[in-house]
Amino acid sequence: MQDIDPAETQEWLEALQDVIEHDGKDRADFILSQLGAVTGGAVSTPYVNTIPVDQQPIYPGDLALENKITAIIRWNAIMMVLRAGKKAPELGGHIATYASAAYLYEIGFQHFFKSDDLLFIQGHASPGIYARAFLEGRLSESQLDHFRREIGGQGISSYPHPWLMPEFWQFPTVSMGLGPLQAIYQARFLKYLHNRGLADTSHRKVWAFLGDGETDEPESLGALTIATREGLDNLIFVVNCNLQRLDGPVRGNGKIIQELEGIFTGAHWNVIKVIWGSSWDEILARDTQGLLKKRMMEVVDGEYQTYRTKNGAYIREHFFNTPELKALVSHLSDDEIWHLRRGGLDPQKVYAAYDIAIKQSNAKPTVILAKTVKGYGIGVEAGEGMNIAHNQKKMDMEAVKRFRDRFNIPIDDTAIEKLPFYHPGENSPEIQYLKEKRKLLGGYLPARRTKSTVKLSTPNLDEFKLLLDSTDDREISTTMAFVRLINILMKDKNIGRHIVPISPDESRTFGMEGMFRQYGIYSPLGQTYTPVDREQVMYYKEAKDGQFLEEGINEAGAFCSWIAAGTSYSVSDMPMIPFYIYYSMFGFQRIGDLAYAASDSHCKGFLIGSLAGRTALAGEGLQHQDGHSLLLAATIPNCIAYDPTYAYEMAVIIQDGLKRMIENNESIYYYITAMNENYTHPEMPKIKGIEESIVKGMYLLREGQASKAKLEVVLLGSGAILREVLAAAEMLENEHGINAHVYSVTSFTELRREALKLERESLFDPESKPKMPYVTQLLKSYTCPVIAATDYMRSYPDQVRAYIQQRYIVLGTDGFGRSDTREQLRDFFEVDRRYIVVSALKALADEEKILLGKVSKAMKAYNILSDKSDPVSM
Q: Residue 445: how many CA atoms within 13 Å on its side-chain side?
């Protein structure tokens, strides 16, 4: 860039050089930062509070009374953990996190958290949240006394778990990193609802509390620019910077607050640093030469952690380590130096930060970096500020007494041995004040709505006639069938507006580009450009009220959008029905922890694992071929998983799922596989009760055709391999004279779950005749081998082995994937029609119903080599 005025440039350079020589580089950085500029690539400001003292608002509350309330909550939180450990030492518990963050939560509860705000609370801070709810009258003393002892009905969960406490916790957060990521997408979905005119969410905030150590998780910081791009001014992160991870310093050799400031500033967030408490204000005001600020900047976190474990004399000597610095605190005693507070432990500083955060009007999210002390208040002897603080679950009686005295809890020595909870009385000033504050803010938090007041009804099955009928000669994939189905739903007058189609990327691969123009891709900015494909019928259309969420190459983010939509019935009293379609390999395998969080959250919706199966996706190879997603789905108790082959199966499953989730309010969600292999689809068989059978997981698709055959087998198939099973049945009959009955198994997992349920019922009612599992009932009349083949690992169909009374042979796709054609892949994994036939023949030979030579003859005829390599070991 050309210098248009060299003389003026030189004047500015000389002025800045003068600032650096007299006040230091930090001062120059600060001056430039006020203009939005930086020096040397830096994106951080001096290590002091962002909000100057003269810009702090007047504190509106009764600070003395609030300090008493906070002290009582601190006490009861610690008593919960100590009492639990006394009853059963293995129960554990955490006291250090809430001890450091108490003011961060209390200032919010007293002054800022509205009843319809969303709170993502640090999991390890749960004792403090329970202790507050006890004072509010929402939890009993008995419940506190059963902390971490849930079995039996009285207890409360270790961490925020909506599944276990459905009317209390809003979101599961203790799996670190998932809370911040979900918070971003919940804030974004509130904007989505508002911009589509479904709900007024303009006044609501999302508060995400996380630890500085938690920011090491990629999920914590990975979506920061999304929050900026989406203009999420309804989002506030509060980072509890106590400088410690679980077992040591977060940045012992650096400064985590400065690092995070740089990251968030670079992502264009509003950054508010709350580093020093009010007791530092007077000292900093007298630091006219900037020497204290310079010292604050040069000390690393490992040293700050050490100072907290020492005493005032040590701090005077080692922090205030020059005559000039010592002069700044010469009027303070060692005890007064020791009690100089960090900013996150000062309610006035925290209030000022929150007040500015909620008033920001620049369409950007905000982060508050609050410096605290891990285990604050428990005493150095019990681990305050020490690396052991996170795992500290016990305190000796002397430490408990010191804690009591420090926070003025009115319990005498004769009672303290029992580790009593303290409640000041329902009519006490503390309780009346606490309740009045929450009343002014609309009600108690955290709290969760379990059922929406908005009623939706499910379309009748006959409205999916397009999928129930035969495709005749037209070949389509189940992915295409799904796209037809979702289009039917989106046109439905009752639930159409509530459907949320979500795709991470490659929507055109899934055949969904027709939705772009018809429904619009959601963008808070609308479309400010002319798309390159504008002249095409199905051009890329973005709209502020767009219905389609096209997330880009971002599986975790797309899944968080799905969770936000699937919990909207609870979060916003607005039931939404999300359909998230994606490459099946990049679902549970990639973001399995989020899938479990969705389960914990009572999320409702549909996951469509497209291009599913180890051999269905030709040409892509190992990383893209999925042979295990159905097994991973089976690990989630309330995930209902299916592997349909035909369009009518998918229609029946989704229609039933809609009814269960939106009409019956069941806390379940669905995983449904879909393929990209094209073939003709028959009409739904006109068999009585077939819909129920499809949902249960299995039905007779084809009876044996060889009426004069003396031998028979039963073949089970699903998804991509069912058509190979059908072809094998014809080969067995036409080439070997063996009657073959074919069952379509839409869900081995649901068959197993039903059988397990009946097993348990029988155990607890031993004198009644046991009920026969559904899979056993369907096969009970056969006295022949049963062969199952799927496009998944053998463990998937093996789930029902205990409930099949006949010889049971399983074929599957264990091992790594390969890049090749479908035909070659099915030969490689030994799941094509030839292997199914040979497996059936071998099973009959093992039962001495045919000669083994017939098996060898068939292998030779089908070119199956006896020395073929095992795909599992390759």
A: 27
